[in-house]
TrEMBL record:
Name of this chain's protein: histidine kinase
GO MF terms held by the record: kinase activity
SMART domains hit by this protein: HATPase_c, HisKA
Annotated EC: 2.7.13.3
PROSITE patterns per the UniProt record, alphabetical: HIS_KIN
SUPFAM superfamilies noted in UniProt: ATPase domain of HSP90 chaperone/DNA topoisomerase II/histidine kinase (SSF55874), Homodimeric domain of signal transducing histidine kinase (SSF47384)
Keyword Ribosomal protein included in the entry's annotation: no
CDD domains per UniProt: HATPase, HisKA
Catalytic activity field: ATP + protein L-histidine = ADP + protein N-phospho-L-histidine
């Protein structure tokens, strides 16, 4: 008689109904099974059982008593907060808890059930992992979709703002108001986006541990794609926050002595591992001491190198060099792309500006060079570009520290 009742627990779709039939067999009204969610380390109703219970604090204290003492007896609210039922709970395998409501069966009466509990708990635990994994895959898919929609929305906004900036007939006051509202929007939106992105990254890391790539190639590919999209979205948000800080006067710098030679070598090593299409060549690298915030100067060099690789897909190398002249050190990065028209070169360091000839083929907001220029100016340096049909050379200068 017990075997068919236990077999009914195999299907999570009608598991609670089957559990109640099993409870009736032992003279009770309801049967609940709680298992440990290994990800968060707390007891939760097993798959197929009601996931929301009335007066949850009562249930939490009851199951905690079972975990501490091996068994517990008392009153529990079910099916509503006003209906209290006499209940008995026992500690099962893998720190699980089994609760009988509406009756108090003895240990001897439920011994046959106790003997097969390890099989049931193993089944419920595997189901919980599978359900959690699917939920996180769905979350990763939604994150990618949201990232793509956000990128498309910001790209449209960039086009409108660029048109507003380059169109000289626009009313100056209207443009300033538009830019102020845009900065306020970007600042608020960027901060609001950081929290869900951080949480989503954490979920993806957990998901990556739950599903080894060798066991589930499709899920592994989804995780990699979601992480890649989140990386792009994070870089975009960081640029937007930097722009907001610049305009609010909140970009803080912590200056210290920097070895320019080591600086170039470190940044080149970091960027080189991110590309398989280009070789970054250090043509000349002078040892010099400069005063600045290393993280921010690295950010500028990284941006110049990344742009050189991005906008020269047909080339195979990028050249970087440093030279000293008149107590300044000049850092320059040369690519071998189609070049920038001479009438557009004066605008490349403007906010949101992108050369029309390349904007159709390459994604971006036109913020990297603007942020780089503001960083170098705050360091007392200058930025510039030289370009012709053979390629472009972006450079910046910084004062050399006195001996």
């Amino acid at each position: 008689m017990l075997s068919p009742l236990v077999a009914g627990l195999n299907n999570p779709a009608n598991r609670f109904q089957a559990a109640n039939k099993l409870a009736h067999f032992f003279g009770c009204l309801h049967l609940f099974v709680f298992i440990v969610d290994r990800e968060i380390g707390i007891l939760l109703p097993a798959p197929g059982f009601p996931q929301t219970l009335p007066n949850g604090k009562f249930w939490q204290d009851f199951t905690l008593g079972c975990s501490k003492n091996g068994h517990h007896q008392g009153l529990l609210p079910f099916p509503d907060a006003n209906t209290l039922q006499e209940s008995v709970g026992i500690l099962g395998p893998e720190q699980s808890v089994i609760v009988f409501l509406g009756g108090t069966p003895t240990h001897e009466q439920i011994r046959p059930l106790i003997e097969i509990l390890p099989i049931l708990i193993n089944l419920f635990t595997r189901e919980l992992v599978e359900f959690s994994t699917q939920a996180r895959i769905d979350l990763a898919d939604k994150a990618v979709t949201k990232a793509e929609k956000l990128a498309a929305t910001i790209d449209i906004m960039r086009v409108h703002l660029k048109d507003a900036l380059v169109e000289q007939k626009k009313d100056k006051k209207a443009i300033e108001e538009l830019m102020q509202k845009k900065d306020e929007f970007m600042n608020v939106a960027s901060h609001e986006l950081k929290t869900p992105i951080t949480i989503t990254k954490a979920y993806l890391q957990i998901l990556q541990k739950l599903i080894p790539p060798q066991e589930n190639t499709t899920a592994g590919d989804f995780i990699l794609k979601a992480n890649k999209q989140l990386g792009k979205l994070t870089a975009l948000i960081n640029d937007l926050l930097d722009v907001s800080k610049i305009h609010a006067g909140q970009m803080v710098y912590h200056f210290a002595e920097i070895d320019s030679k080591n600086l170039i070598e470190e940044v080149v090593a970091q960027v080189q591992v991110t590309t398989q299409t280009h070789q970054i060549i250090i043509a000349h690298n002078v040892p010099a001491k400069i005063n600045g915030e290393q993280h921010r100067v690295e950010q500028v060099i990284n941006n110049f190198l990344s742009n050189a690789i991005k906008y020269s897909p047909g080339a195979e190398k990028v050249i970087i060099r440093s030279d000293i002249n008149d107590n300044t050190v000049k850092f320059s990065v040369r690519d071998f792309c189609i070049g920038i028209p001479i009438d557009k070169q004066q605008y490349v360091f403007d906010r949101f500006y992108r050369v029309q000839e390349s904007s159709k083929n390459f994604s971006g907001l036109g913020l990297g060079l603007y942020i780089s220029a503001e960083i170098i100016r705050r360091h007392g340096g200058t930025v510039g570009v030289n370009s012709d049909a053979s390629g472009s050379e972006f450079y910046f200068t910084l004062p050399v520290l006195d001996a």
